[in-house]
Design brief:
The chain is mainly β. The protein contains no helices and 7 strands. A 4-stranded antiparallel β-sheet has the order 4-3-6-7, with no helix packed on it.
Length: 110
């Protein structure tokens, strides 16, 4: 039974269970802690990269998963991504650290 609404829950999976941490590095950072502002945005977004000690790669993807922007070797504490000619809509900003860990956030452009 769901703890909030009381709806009965039934699970019929009887196979092995694996515990996997997604998007969390050794320091305990998760994608939830990636700060991108303002969101929604109109002309640009700023990504707070101060938690990273080495350069990172910043990628921007459209809703279909197509990479539309790529910035490598970013070392700034704050990195500004200008909208350019991107249309209104939702985008995924992904920051990849030197160790390969990826952190993603959705951004809305208005």
């Amino acid at each position: 039974e769901h703890e909030n609404c009381g709806v009965p829950l039934v699970c019929s999976y009887n196979g092995p269970v694996a515990s996997v941490a997604l998007g969390v590095d050794e320091a305990g950072m998760s994608s939830d802690q990636l700060v991108i502002y303002p969101n929604p945005a109109s002309t640009s977004v700023t990504i707070d990269l101060s938690v990273f000690t080495t350069s990172v790669t910043v990628d921007v993807y459209d809703v279909l998963g197509k990479k539309i922007m790529n910035f490598t070797g970013v070392k700034n504490d704050k990195f500004v991504v200008n909208r350019g000619n991107l249309k209104n809509g939702m985008y995924l900003v992904t920051v990849t650290a030197a160790d390969g860990q990826r952190y993603s956030k959705r951004v809305v452009l208005e």
